[in-house]
Write a structure and sequence with these properties.
Elements: H1 3-10, H2 13-17, E1 24-26, E2 29-32, E3 44-47, E4 52-55, E5 61-62, H3 64-72, H4 76-87, H5 101-125, H6 127-136, H7 141-146, E6 150-152, H8 158-165, H9 170-175, E7 179-182, E8 185-188, E9 193-199, E10 205-212, E11 222-224, H10 240-250, E12 253-256, H11 259-267, E13 273-275, H12 283-290, E14 295-299, H13 304-320, E15 323-326, H14 335-341, H15 343-351, E16 354-355, H16 356-366, H17 373-387, H18 393-407, H19 411-423, H20 441-459, H21 477-485, H22 497-509, H23 515-545, H24 550-580
Parallel strand pairs: 12-13, 12-14, 14-15
Antiparallel strand pairs: 1-2, 2-3, 3-4, 4-5, 6-9, 7-8, 9-10, 10-11, 15-16
Length: 581
């Protein structure tokens, strides 16, 4: 993975674009007014799935880097640096390593996996940590094997020596987060702790959570691998690789706070459970879960921190169209405690979650005096700040009526306060630094025609042969490169930015169009594309004829004759392709 890919993998294009364009959800995509034209009807589209944008009014489009180039007036390097700072990526790590970065990353994966195996063996050799896991935590042998539990022995260089014997360098150990520097020497990162491997969604170990065996208030109970090329706390979901198929089958996922809660739940037979890093669910976490389900159930602590975490998650879930609810655990226990007490009760509470907004309203009401004017003001303000994050107007009205009932206030007064609060919370967008120079209107229109045409051709394999009848220079440079690199659209790589852009255009414009209507529109687009091409070529030929020799004149006039036949020839070929298909 090169620097640009690493940066793009760590940020969501819709988050970046929404700093400059007011976006609204439109099915799977987002729409807004073009920042490049003066349109009144939104035609600027952002696709979270494809991680691309397309402006239907100007024909511009691309990935998040090209967007920043356009709105900030930067070159590729400048845009990459800006986004790298936002994503927390150190570009210096990629300098001079474009060909070896993937090899380096694979070496780090191997180092972490070797550490996992080493710690697993050490667990079998040390009675105290093994007894703690088997007797205190009540984990079965198979559970320890499934989650690859281990033990880091006391000492400063146990893992260091082992990894050196496996030919890993000190630099690799540092970059993998397995060792740290103390003064001038390298020592093991983890010592005298239970080791719980953290894996990516494919099950490859990327780091560790390390727990004390005996609680010592002088040291943290848990320590994690520091941020590395492999491990990013904001992207880590513990247990995801083991839970994803169960999530898909059950139709929901439970998100808990502690990694050991996940272990206990899996052992108890409730497998569709994962853990976030602490209580902070990120947009990346939710997008990962959304690939498998739109029903996310949080089992966070029933305290202020848990409530704050739940509130922070609502806008993220609303943007993605995820149903967010909360699993209430009796007597304030954590999942691990409840599972040990009664496995069936854990399954029951998981099966009966409370919708997040209802749960938050109840919590806020419990801590507010609704008999006083001050309490009603505080209560309505707090709840309205949650309601305004909801995207559905019917849902907003439902909760505003509940608010009126709970405060014994008229619906009219509640609505009036809500509208005032909405208006005072308008998001201030960043200004576009450079107004991009627009090419002539006719050039923009031709660019849009070719994008529409190539979007249809890319999506409808039947039409691929039509390209054979067209001149090689009929398309713009970007479109020509796309057609050439994909072997006349026969092989379109998933990561081809131009291909993703024109396919997005097809989905937005033609996906539900009747076949006959689609073919009619395609034939008309083809005709208009050729008309513009022919007129442009004829203008160029007329200029050349002014100073042409007799021999050149004959050649140029022959070109004019061929151009006159082009449209009829191409459309006839189009009709033959359709008839044969």
């Amino acid at each position: 993975m090169d620097a640009a890919q690493e940066v793009k993998s760590r940020i969501n294009i819709e988050d970046v674009v929404s700093e400059y364009v007011q976006l609204k959800r439109a099915g799977r995509n987002y729409k807004g007014l073009s920042p490049f034209t003066s349109e009144r009807t939104p035609s600027f589209v952002v696709s979270p799935d494809k991680q691309i944008w397309h402006d239907f009014s100007s024909g511009k489009g691309g990935d998040v880097i090209s967007f920043i180039e356009q709105v900030e007036g930067l070159d590729f390097r400048g845009a990459l640096q800006l986004l790298a700072r936002k994503a927390g990526v150190d570009l210096s790590e990629f300098q001079g390593k474009s060909t070896g970065s993937s090899d380096q990353k694979e070496r780090l994966f191997q180092a972490v996996d070797s550490a996992v195996s080493y710690y697993q063996v050490q667990l079998t050799k040390h009675e105290i940590p093994l007894r703690y896991l088997r007797e205190n935590r009540e984990y079965e042998k198979q559970t320890l094997i499934d989650f690859r539990f281990g033990y880091a022995p006391n000492g400063t260089d146990n893992l260091l020596k082992f990894l050196k014997s496996k030919n890993f360098t000190e630099d690799e150990m540092l970059k993998a987060g397995l060792c740290v520097k103390r003064d001038t020497r390298l020592i093991d990162m983890f010592r005298d702790r239970i080791m719980i491997p953290l894996s990516d969604a494919q099950g490859k170990p990327v780091g560790f959570t390390a727990r004390q065996i005996k609680d010592d208030k002088n040291y943290p109970k848990y320590i994690n691998t520091p941020a590395t090329i492999l491990y990013d706390k904001g992207r880590q979901l513990f247990g995801m690789s083991m839970a994803k198929e169960y999530i898909r089958k059950s139709g929901y996922v439970v998100v808990v706070e502690g990694n050991l809660d996940v272990v206990a739940s899996h052992q108890a037979g409730v497998h569709q459970v994962v853990a976030s890093a602490g209580t902070a669910l990120t947009s990346y976490h939710l997008k990962t879960l959304q690939r498998f389900t739109g029903d996310v159930r949080l089992a966070f602590d029933d305290d202020r921190a848990g409530q704050d975490a739940a509130e922070r998650t609502i806008p993220l879930a609303q943007e993605l169209g995820i149903d967010l609810s909360l699993v209430t655990i009796p007597s304030g226990k954590d999942p691990d405690e409840l599972i040990k007490k009664d496995v069936k009760l854990w399954q029951e509470v998981v099966d009966k979650p409370t919708y997040m907004v209802d749960w938050l309203i109840e919590k806020i009401e419990t801590n507010t005096d609704l008999s006083s004017a001050q309490g009603k003001r505080q209560f309505t303000s707090k709840v309205m700040s949650i309601i305004k994050q909801l995207k559905d107007e019917v849902e907003q009205e439902h909760f505003l009526r509940i608010l009126a009932d709970k405060t014994n206030t008229s619906v009219e007064s509640i609505n009036k306060k809500f509208e005032t609060k909405q208006n005072s919370n308008n998001v201030r967008l960043k200004k576009i630094k450079v107004e991009p120079q627009q090419p002539p209107k006719e050039v923009v229109e031709q660019r849009l025609r070719e994008q529409h045409l190539l979007g249809i051709f890319s999506a409808v394999a039947l039409l691929h042969p039509v390209l054979e009848s067209l001149p090689k220079d009929i398309f713009s440079d970007d479109a020509t490169e796309y057609v050439k690199s994909t072997n006349l659209l026969q092989q379109i790589p998933e990561d081809n930015e131009y291909g993703k852009m024109v396919l997005l255009l097809f989905e937005e414009t033609y996906q539900h169009t009747d076949r006959n209507e689609l073919l009619y529109q395609t034939r008309a687009l083809l005709g208009r594309l050729i008309d513009f091409y022919v007129n442009t070529k004829n203008t160029q030929i007329i200029t050349k004829l002014e100073n042409a020799t007799e021999e050149d004149e004959q050649s140029l006039l022959k070109q004019v004759t061929e151009l006159q036949k082009l449209k009829n020839k191409a459309q006839k070929h189009f009709d033959i392709v359709i008839k044969q298909g």
